[in-house]
Amino acid sequence: MSNADRRREREELCELLAARGVSDRRVLAAIRSVPRERFLPPELQPAAYDNNALAIGEDQTISQPLMVALMTQQLKLTGAETVLEVGTGSGYQAAILAELAAQVVTIERLPGLAERAEKTLRELGYKNIEFRIGDGTLGCAEAAPFDGIIVTAGAPDVPAPLYRQLREGGRLVIPVGDQGLQILKTVTREPQGPVIEEAGGCRFVPLIGDAGWTRPE
Ligand code: SAM
User: Fold this and answer.
1) Which of 208, 210, 213, 214 has the most ligand 1 atoms within 8 A of CB, as the residue to mutate?
2) What residue ranges do the domains of the chain occupy?
3) pTM to 2 decimals?
4) Mutate which of 44, 179, 207, 217 to test ligand 1's pocket (most atoms within 8 Å of Cβ)?
5) According to the 3-state scheme, what is the secondary structure of the chain?
């Protein structure tokens, strides 16, 4: 596929995202500039700009572009923030965040995925991403507080350590529900306590860890 074809596909994807509620121009610009095909195995690269989640190995997925864009938009990033991502997976969401925030810390529990994502992101030249391997339900205390936290796996509830690691006014975006279906929640840390906003239904692989599921059902 030629570069011009890829650019056209990315443009069509952005039009679809805009029509489905993505209004933050910086988020659309980030989707336009990150080459999603680089985060996929070769046989799936032709489908890089379809609005679908795709398999990345180890029973995990790269999230659907619409979900990446809507979740990122919820963080209301301006460029100055430090953001934590739980669930590095392919590294695509980390790249989008790195385009929009000052610093990104990303945690993945599966070392094979984490190493591949780090290699891809280094090759693409990202210098503002820190990589961790471990249980992201516990957050990353040494890099806290965070202006934003995004969890890209489905949780049974909002993990308390993640809420505690938010700066006042910070936002945590997380799918919460059972292992089949979740609701996208945005939790803002206000002086009086958490303020929770709920968006539509979504379907993510399970968040496995101390403050998540003990294992897939
Ligand atoms: N953000 C990813 C991307 O852009 O490709 C998609 C992530 S995939 C839907 C969810 C990821 O969360 C998987 O790679 C999974 O291994 C990871 N995960 C699940 N539980 C985790 C935990 N407790 N800590 C860190 N990563 C976790």
Assistant:
1) 208
2) 3-202
3) 0.97
4) 207
5) CCHHHHHHHHHHHHHHHHHCCCCCHHHHHHHHHCCHHHHCCHHHHHHCCCCCCEEEECCEEECCHHHHHHHHHHCCCCCCCEEEEECCCCCHHHHHHHHHCCEEEEEECCHHHHHHHHHHHHHCCCCCEEEEECCHHHCCHHHCCEEEEEECCEECCCCHHHHHCEEEEEEEEEEEECCCCEEEEEEEEECCEEEEEEEEEECCCECECCCCECCCC
Place of tokens 């609005």: 51
* CA end-to-end distance (rounded Å), the chain: 39
Residue range 3-202, CATH number: 3.40.50.150
Ligand 1 contacts (CB < 6 A) are 60-63, 86-87, 89-90, 92-93, 107-110, 113, 135-137, 152-153, 204-205, 207-209, 212
Tens-place pLDDT, residues 93-147:
999 999 999 999 999 999 999 999 999 999 999 999 999 999 999 999 999 999 9
